[in-house]
């Protein structure tokens, strides 16, 4: 097992926005990652400053064991002063995020969240992984991996009915087929190319493509800016901060931000908006029917 020490900083935190993360009430987070048959179990003290990340290789595949994790850091200190100061008032410091090495696993949660609340989409994703994917178990606990796209293509409509997705079977199979048709090109694309290519796959629109790109590359700048306004979301998080960010000066500053600054502010906003999965949600690990074990 390898332990990674992250850079220190005020209120340094770990971003756990993907539903594959399971977080205990004590702030202990765990998640399984996979690529090319290689499986890693990553555990972290998400509330610790700085977060301490343990990496365990569960199974070796065709991808080098050191390919995961890649950790991105989003630092409010890189933002223009007019945007930085209000965020720092809330105690927000550097936020670390572990990239998802598996594009398929980045696409699935966005598909399940389509026309659903985020929490409902996360539960549907976990139920799907639990029944048809792989449960990875180590001394750190259990985590879930989704079924591979070729296995999803073989699932009939009844398989989706059993997890409450009665009318989603056909669409999910089309998603898997579209993903497989575009391989291996998708995995070698730059973020801007990937963002465009994903939207050519059935069931993936701008929002889903933006989230999948962010999950696999760490670049959060592709969120549709006409719809995703940080000032609006910060008004929900902290009324005082939201009021500052909604001034004409702040909005003009946001419009003038660089590509990297937009990505940083979007990631920090999503981090503040996210709700940590409850202990009840994590119980899906123990209560749902099991798929294969690893």
Which terms summarize this structure?
294 residues; alpha+beta; Endonuclease III, domain 1; 5-stranded antiparallel beta sheet; 17% strand; globular
Low-confidence stretches: 275-290
The total of helices stands at 14
CATH class: Mainly Alpha
Strand segment tally: 10
SSE order? EEEEEEEHEHHEEHHHHHHHHHHH
What is the helical fraction, as a range of percent? 40-55%
Query: What is the CA–CA distance across the termini?
Result: 17 Å
Structural class by helix and strand composition: alpha+beta
Q: Spatial order of the strands in the main sheet?
A: 1-6-5-4-3
What gyration radius follows from the Cα positions, in whole Å?
Answer: 19 Å
CATH homologous superfamily assignment: Hypothetical protein, domain 2
Mean pLDDT: 84
Describe the main β-sheet briefly.
Answer: 5 strands, antiparallel
Name given to the CATH architecture: Orthogonal Bundle
Q: Any idea how many domains?
A: 1
Indicate the overall shape.
globular
CATH topology, what is it called?
Answer: Endonuclease III, domain 1
Strand content: 15-25%
Explained architecture:
It is a single chain. 43% of the residues lie in helices and 17% in strands. With 294 residues, it is α+β, with helices and mostly antiparallel strands. The protein has a single domain (2-222, 274-287), classed as Endonuclease III, domain 1 (Orthogonal Bundle), CATH 1.10.340.30. The strands form three sheets. A five-stranded antiparallel beta sheet has the order 1-6-5-4-3. α1 (81-89) packs antiparallel against α10 (239-245) and α2 packs antiparallel against α8. The protein is globular and about 55 Å long.
